[in-house]
Amino acid sequence: MLSSGPAGTGAEPAALSAGVCSGRERAGGDITNPSMRTHTAYLTFHTRKRQEFINITDRLHAILADSGVQEGMMLVSAMHITAAVYVNDAEEGLIADIQQWLAELCPERPDYRHHQTGEDNAHAHLRNLLLGHQVILPITQGRLDLGPWQQVYYAEFDGQRDKRVVVKILGA
Question: Against a cut of 0.90, is the pTM above it?
Fold first, then answer.
């Protein structure tokens, strides 16, 4: 059972207006932390190859340092439907395995219906669906709170042109 009242009471808050809050108030009337802030940055990529996997972890650490946020969350989202952002190990063999897996599941081939529109990148759209276009990363004590082998990657499937990633940080 979902309870949004005081712990263990099961009480409902006085007014919930479809999850809409004024910005300073949370559902239930609590005032939010006045030190809460947001920070937005953009990464731009222009890959040399049509498909590339780029470790962006260090860039994200730098963006976090610029934000001044010590506790919170970082959203990292590809702003294109033929790219992905994912978290995994920075091991070349694994990256090659991921690329092979994607090529087997979504091969480049001429018979996709999407290609009837004049495009030739249906495989790139499908690969985006498999890896996902965004991740949310925890921030603890001013650092990305990643596991010992976790790295953040931008995966480009239809590159050789400018593409962007938005990084949105929310915290205190």
Answer: no
